[in-house]
């Protein structure tokens, strides 16, 4: 604290330069926050993917369907606790930009497969009793103002109704919530039997999710499932839920590597900017540093003085940048639905704070060493 008045005086020496340096650090950490949220959105549930869940899809591609008869065969395998089918609907609500996942499934079993989705008993009873019923996630319900009892028309894109129209109408019978951060509460579940009765599914479904008794047997069970349907017209590929989600995310590229490359370039640039600012400040204060040494300041004290100055600049810019990122990202998905799990993870916030301190120290290290090594007599002779 005894160095604080000296440090503040140095900041006031070139206020515009100090402000611009702080702004550059601020922008870097604001970008860090947004890129962290984007990475989290694309990983979409990998962190909380159930270790006891496997996903069974067509061996060729996920867009290829599987027979609904597979469910019984899968559940007969020793070690499989439950299996249920899911089918992607892909409809449009009012406008194509209003994207949210609509999925047909079993109204009873989906909650057993995904215990992180919480629904009350009353809503569950209505879901079972209502053929056209749908349960929607809290995020999507709030976004479009859906309430229990609302009738929601959705335009068909893949599954055309048997009556020749283009519109399916669902009744909202419940709203589910996510029990933990990172669980997807943006989905729209409706009944598989309603889809089958009113469209031409041909007794086929999109994919199966399996709940296993023992996660340690997941690899063995995945192999058993695939062997069960080997050489059939619809061979399967079974993998852990985490691997399935990661493969789905990788279809748009290695987002993690792209983000890392962008952040590396940004932080390297900011490091040069901040380092150059501190080096310039030390050069301009050579005589003053000589005076400090003549007054009895040790080499270590001069080193600390410069490092404290660079760290304070990094902390001010970084803290404002991370804070702004936290507030802005908390406002929700900026794409209007394409990134339903858009949030700034606490882990990345802590990592950002560590980067702030690291940036402050590294940026000031060379100028600080230069200041520490100054010869007192030579420094006092400089203009």
What is this structure, in a nutshell?
By secondary structure, the chain is an alpha+beta fold. The chain is 51% helix and 16% strand.
Alpha-beta classification? alpha+beta
**DSSP, total strands:** 12
Helix content: 40-55%
- Give the uncertain stretches in residue-range form: none
Instruction: Give me the strand/helix succession.
Output: HHEEHEEHEHEHEEEHEEHEHHHHHH
What is the overall silhouette? elongated
User: Given the structure, what is the number of helices?
Assistant: 14
Strand content: 15-25%
Largest sheet: 10 strands, mixed
Rg, Å, rounded? 29 Å
What average pLDDT do the residues reach? 87
Cα distance spanning the termini: 29 Å
Question: What descriptors fit this protein?
Answer:
14 helices; alpha+beta; 383 residues; elongated
């Amino acid at each position: 604290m005894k160095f604080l008045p000296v440090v503040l005086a140095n900041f006031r020496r070139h206020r515009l330069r100090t402000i611009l340096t702080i702004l550059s650090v601020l922008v870097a950490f604001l970008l860090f926050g947004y890129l962290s949220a984007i990475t989290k959105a694309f990983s979409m549930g990998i962190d909380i993917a159930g270790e006891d869940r496997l996903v069974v899809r067509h061996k060729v591609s996920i867009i290829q369907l599987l027979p609904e008869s597979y469910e019984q065969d899968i559940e007969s395998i020793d070690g499989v606790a439950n299996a249920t089918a899911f089918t992607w609907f892909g409809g449009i609500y009012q406008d194509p930009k209003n994207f949210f996942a609509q999925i047909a499934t079993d109204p009873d079993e989906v909650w057993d497969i995904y215990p992180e989705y919480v629904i009350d008993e009353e809503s569950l009873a209505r879901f079972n009793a209502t053929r056209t019923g749908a349960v929607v996630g809290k995020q999507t319900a709030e976004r479009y103002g859906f309430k229990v009892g609302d009738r929601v028309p959705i335009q068909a894109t893949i599954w055309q109704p048997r009556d020749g129209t283009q519109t399916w109408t669902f009744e909202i019978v419940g709203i589910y919530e996510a029990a933990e951060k990172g669980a997807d509460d943006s989905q729209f579940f409706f009944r598989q039997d309603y889809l089958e009765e009113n469209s031409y599914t041909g007794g086929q479904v999109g994919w199966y999710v399996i709940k296993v008794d023992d996660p340690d047997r997941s690899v063995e069970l995945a192999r058993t499932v695939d062997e069960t349907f080997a050489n059939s017209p619809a061979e399967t590929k079974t993998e852990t839920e985490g691997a399935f989600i990661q493969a789905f995310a990788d279809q748009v590229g290695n987002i993690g590597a792209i983000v890392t490359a962008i952040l590396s370039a940004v932080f390297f640039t900011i490091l040069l900017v901040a380092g150059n600012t501190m080096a310039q400040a030390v050069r301009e204060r050579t005589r003053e540093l000589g005076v400090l040494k003549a007054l009895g300041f040790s080499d270590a004290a001069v080193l600390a003085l410069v490092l404290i100055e660079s760290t304070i600049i990094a902390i001010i810019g970084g803290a404002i940048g991370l804070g702004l990122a936290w507030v802005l990202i908390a406002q929700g998905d900026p794409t209007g639905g394409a990134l339903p799990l858009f949030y700034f993870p606490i882990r990345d916030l802590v990592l950002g704070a560590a980067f702030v301190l690291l940036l402050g120290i590294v940026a000031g290290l060379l100028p600080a060493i230069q200041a520490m090594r100054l010869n007192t007599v030579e420094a006092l002779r400089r203009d």
